[in-house]
Design brief:
flat, mainly alpha
Length: about 240
């Protein structure tokens, strides 16, 4: 057994050069064995990536099977509650969330994907409304909140998905959107249960969001403060 004169690694009898530092092996007392098999592969090979189309087919089959089996089981048991609608709705929602992004990766499909995700949530909640016979709360409470959430997601996609934004700008946008969402949720809840809107807790949330957003905007606008914050917090 010989060793590399450069790095000292132990060499196999079939090694013509060091596998670590590639120094040629010159040992007159032990010539290189050219007939025995190498202790490691001589050609680099990689496992081929899994086809995303096949993954999409697998996910579609699994989700469809789960929904169909639960629907048949619900009919077979003949229970008063259509509990299978919850499972079917969840399967549809997961399919919309997972399968289309596997098949489409173009940037211009981001808006369509966001709209599809919100549509999936609306469909799932509508199936819950069918089971609970609650179309009134669906149309006047659940659907407006879902649409508001979809509008915020779409706003995030338009402002942060198209171009590279700094961490401070992204944080300011997200925090400000949370305040707006809280105001909208309280508005819809008050109008549904009381008939009018009287802001209370959402104003506190909005005030906190403004308190956090305004310093971020100021720091973002001042280069010296921005660089100091980036050094301090590794942003």
């Amino acid at each position: 057994m010989s060793y590399c004169v450069n790095c000292g690694v132990e060499l196999d009898d079939t090694a013509a050069f060091c596998p670590l530092c590639h120094t040629p092996v010159q040992n007159p007392n032990q010539p290189v064995d050219l007939h025995s098999p190498k202790p490691f592969p001589t050609e680099r090979q990689e496992v081929p990536p899994v086809s995303k189309r096949h993954v999409a087919i697998l996910l579609s089959t699994v989700l469809a099977s789960v929904g169909a089996c639960c629907g048949v089981l619900n009919l077979f048991l003949r229970t008063e509650r259509t509990w299978s609608l919850y499972v079917i709705g969840a399967a549809i929602m997961l399919w919309i969330w997972l399968v289309p992004p596997l098949l489409h990766h173009k940037k211009d499909t981001l808006r369509l994907q966001l709209l599809a995700d919100i549509l999936a949530i609306a469909i799932y909640v509508s199936l819950i409304a069918v089971d609970l016979d609650g179309w009134d709360w669906y149309w006047h409470l659940a659907l407006p909140i879902i649409l508001l959430l979809g509008a915020i997601f779409l706003f995030w996609g338009l402002t942060m998905g198209g171009r590279q934004r700094s961490t401070l700008s992204s944080m300011a946008i997200v925090i400000g959107s949370i305040g707006v969402f809280a105001m909208g949720v309280e508005c819809f809840v008050d109008r549904f249960f009381r008939g009018n809107w009287s802001p209370s807790w959402s104003l506190i949330v909005l005030a906190v969001c403004l308190i956090l957003t305004i310093p971020l905007i100021i720091v973002r606008r001042m280069p010296s403060l921005r660089e100091e914050v980036r050094r301090r917090f590794h942003l």
